[in-house]
Write a structure and sequence with these properties.
Layout (H helix, E strand, L loop, with lengths): L8 H22 L7 H16 L5 E6 L15 E2 L6 E10 L1 H6 L5 E8 L10 E7 L13 H11 L8 E5 L5 H10 L2 E5 L3 H9 L1 H4 L3 E7 H14 L2 E6 L4 H9 L8 E2 H4 L6 E6 L10 E3 L2 E10 L4 E10 H9 L1
Parallel strand pairs: 1-3, 6-7, 6-8
Antiparallel strand pairs: 1-2, 3-4, 4-11, 5-8, 5-9, 9-10, 11-13, 12-13, 13-14
C-alpha cells in the first residue's frame, strides 16, 4: 500500500517526481507542435515519459495506457515502470491527451500520469465510455441514467444557479448530435472541443478556475480512468458507462466481467484512497499554459494532486536545458 502519512518524504517525492515526468513529456512533445506529425509527437512524449518513470521511487505496472487503440507508440499495458522499490502501484498514462491538438498546433494538449495502489484501477479493452463529470458543489446530484436535461436541472439546483448559467463541454463528434440538441434545449451554454477529454473532465471538476461546469458525452475509456483519478483528488463527481461499439465488443466486455449497463462511479474506476495525478500543458489551454521555449530556458505549467490530503498544486517552472542535457550524460 502507498504510505498514508502526508508528512513522509516518500509522499512528497512521489508527487514531485510525477510532475517531473509530465514536464519532460510535455517539453519533448512540444517540439512537434504544429508540425502535423502525430506519431513523432507521441513517440517523443512516450520516450521521455518511459525514461523519467524509470527513476521514480516505485514498483509500478501500467494498467491504463494509450497505443493499442490507434497503433501509436505506447507505454503498453503490463509494462513495469519505476526503479523497483516500494510502493507497489498501478500506473495510468496518457503521454499526450490531445495528440491531434499538438500536431496541428491547437489549444489544450496535455501530458498526464496517475498512480494508485496496486490493483485499484479499472482495466478494460472497451474503447469508449459515456461520461458525466461535475465539480465538488454538485457532488451527489448527478445520475447518468437520467436524461441530460434532468442532470443539468439537478446540477443547477445543487449550485444554486440557473441552468442557463451552466457551461457544458462536449467532444465535437457526430455521435453527439442528439446530446447537443438536448443540452441546447435547456438553455445551457456549450463548449465544443475537438480532442482532449481528460483536460475537459478536469476543467469540469474545477469550475471556479475554468468556467466549465459539466462534461457530458462519449470518449475514450482510458481517458475516463485517468480523469477519475483527478476527479477523486478534487473531490468532484463522475459517472461512466461502457459503450461497446458492436456485439463483439459487448461480448468482450462481458468476458471481462462487466455489465455494459452498469454505471461506474469514480470510486469504481480508481478504487484507491491514495491517488496521485499530474498533468503538464503542451499547447496553451483553458486550464494549463503550454510549453514556451526561449533559448536554453523552457517554461512549463503543471498541476499535481493527491487524493489522501486533497492537495492541489499549480506549478509554474523554468527549466535550464543546458543543465538538463549535462545531467542526462552523467
Amino acid at each position: 500500500m502507498l504510505t498514508t502519512d502526508p508528512g513522509t518524504p516518500t509522499d512528497r517525492n512521489l508527487a514531485m517526481e510525477l510532475v517531473r515526468v509530465t514536464e519532460g513529456a510535455a517539453m519533448s512533445a512540444a517540439r512537434f507542435m504544429g508540425r502535423d506529425d502525430k506519431i513523432a509527437a507521441d513517440r517523443a512524449a512516450v520516450e521521455s515519459m518511459r525514461r523519467s518513470l524509470s527513476y521514480v521511487d516505485m514498483s509500478g505496472v501500467v494498467k491504463i495506457g494509450e497505443g493499442e487503440k490507434d497503433q501509436a507508440p505506447m507505454l503498453y499495458i503490463g509494462e513495469e515502470v519505476g526503479n523497483g522499490n516500494p510502493p507497489l502501484v498501478d500506473v495510468a498514462v496518457d503521454p499526450i491527451d490531445g495528440t491531434r491538438l499538438v500536431a496541428r498546433g491547437l489549444p489544450g494538449g496535455i501530458a498526464t500520469v496517475a498512480l494508485a495502489d496496486r490493483d485499484s484501477l479499472l482495466q478494460t479493452h472497451c474503447f469508449y465510455m459515456e461520461k458525466l463529470v461535475v465539480g465538488p458543489r454538485a457532488k451527489g446530484a448527478i445520475d447518468l441514467r437520467q436524461p441530460p436535461a434532468e442532470n443539468l436541472r439537478r446540477i443547477a439546483e445543487a449550485e444554486s444557479r440557473h441552468v442557463e448559467d451552466l457551461t457544458v463541454v462536449v467532444l465535437d463528434r457526430p455521435r453527439h448530435e442528439r446530446l447537443l440538441a438536448e443540452i441546447r434545449n435547456t438553455g445551457a451554454r456549450v463548449m465544443l472541443i475537438t480532442d482532449g477529454d481528460v483536460a475537459a473532465g478536469i476543467m469540469a471538476a474545477l469550475p471556479e478556475r475554468t468556467g466549465i461546469d459539466v462534461l457530458m458525452g462519449i470518449g475514450g475509456a482510458t481517458e475516463a480512468v485517468l480523469t477519475s483519478c483527478a476527479v477523486r483528488c478534487i473531490e468532484g463527481d463522475m459517472q461512466c458507462r461502457l459503450m461497446p461499439r458492436d456485439q463483439e465488443e459487448a461480448e468482450m466486455v462481458r468476458r471481462e466481467g462487466f455489465d455494459p449497463d452498469h454505471v461506474f462511479p469514480a470510486e469504481e474506476l480508481s478504487g484507491s484512497e491514495n491517488i496521485f495525478f499530474a498533468a503538464t500543458g503542451i499547447t496553451d489551454g483553458e486550464m494549463l499554459g503550454g510549453v514556451r521555449f526561449a533559448g536554453e530556458r523552457v517554461e512549463t505549467h503543471s498541476v499535481v494532486m493527491r487524493s489522501y490530503s486533497g492537495t492541489i498544486r499549480w506549478i509554474d517552472a523554468v527549466h535550464d536545458l543546458s543543465k538538463l542535457r549535462a545531467r542526462s550524460r552523467d
